[in-house]
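So, read this over?
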Amino acid sequence: MTVTERRASASLASIFALRMLGLFLVLPVFALEAARYPGGDDPARVGMAMGIYGLTQGLLQIPFGIASDWWGRKRVIIAGLLLFALGSFVATWAPDLDWLIAGRSLQGAGAISAAVTALLADATRDEVRTKAMALVGASIALMFALSLVIAPLLAGYIGLHGLFALTGALALGGIAVVLWWVPPEPVDHVNRPRGSVAEVLKDTALLRLDFGVFVLHAVQLAMWVAIPALLVAAGLDTSQHWQVYLPAVLASFGVMGMTLFPLERRGYLRAVFLGAVALVFVVQLGLLWTASHTGPEAHNLGWLALLLFLFFCGFNVLEASQPSLASRVAPAHARGAALGVYNTLQSLGFFAGGAVGGWVTKTHGPPGLFLLCGGLMLLWLLVAWPMRAPGRKAPTLVASRTTLPPQGASFPWGGPAENSRSAD
C-alpha cells in the first residue's frame, strides 16, 4: 500500500470501529437493561427497540450511498455521524421505552456504511482493496469481541443511559477523524456521470453479492440466538463466553492473513470465496448435530470452540472480500449507489436474522434454526457458484492528481484486457 492508502484504510477503519463499538457495547446488556424502563415489561416492544436500528439503517443506506455519489463522501459521512450521535443522546435521555425506540431509530438513520466503503474504494487500488476492506472487517470483529468483555462491566457502573452517552461521544470522535485524519477525497463529484439504483440492480454480479451479504448477516445474527445456550449447556457461564469468542476471532484473523491475501494475489480469489461459503455451511451442519444431541460428546466445549473458530475463519474472509468485490464490480460513477444497495441488504439481513431466528428457535428449537441457516448457506453457494473474480482496473488515485496512461497502454499487472470489467 502507498502512504495515502494506508492512511485512508486506517482512518476509515477507525470510523467503523468507533461507530460499531458504540453499537456493540449496548447489545450484550440491552434486553436486560431495557426491561427496567416504563413499558419495558413487553418483550415485543423491547425487541422492537433493539431491532429498529437495523430497519431504519437498511432503509437509508441507498439514499446515503447515492448522496455520496452526488455531494461527496465526507459530507455524507459527517451528516450520518451527526444523526447517529443525536440518536445516541436521545436514547441517553429517554425516560421510557417509546423514547428509547425513537433514539434507536435516529441512530439507524445515520446510515454511513455505503459512503465510508465507497470512499475507501475510491482511495485504494484494486490489488490492495481486499486488504483495505479486511482492515475494516477486522476492526468490526475486534470491537464485537471487545464489547463482549467490557459491556457488562461498564453497564454495572454507568447503566444503559451511560452506554448510550459513550456511544454518542464515540460518534463525535468519528467526525474528528473525518475532518483531520481521513485523506482528501480522491474523486471530483462535479461534472461526472451519476449512478442510479436501477443501473446497479441490473447487474447480475452485484445481485449475487447483495444476496450473499443478506444471507451472511442473517445467518450470523440468527446463530447467536442459540449459541449462548449451547455454551451454557457445555458448562461455560454466560460471563465467561468471551473466553471462547475472543480467541476464536483473533485466531481467525491469522488464518485470513495466511490464506486470503496470498491466494488472491495468485488468482484464486473465487476459490477462496466459495470455500469460505462452504466452510460456514459445514459449521451449520456441525451446530445442527450439536443441537440435535444431548450427550456430553455433543455439548463439548472444545468442539463448540472449534466450530466457532471455523465460523469466524469463513466469516472474516467473506466480510473482507465481499465489499471489495462489490466496489470493483460496480462502475465508478455508481459506486455509492451500488454499495448503498449492498449495505441495505446487509442491514436487512441483520433485521431478518434476529426476527426470523427468534421465531424459528421458539417454534422449532435450535435444530430448526441451524437447519435453516445451513439451507441458506447452501443456497448461497449455488447462487455464487457462477461468479467470476473481476479483473483489475487502472488505478484512480486522483488525490495525487496522477494522470492515467492512455487507453491501451500496458500496466504492471497485465494488458488492457485485464482493465475491463469482468462479465457475470
Summary: The chain has a mean pLDDT of 78.
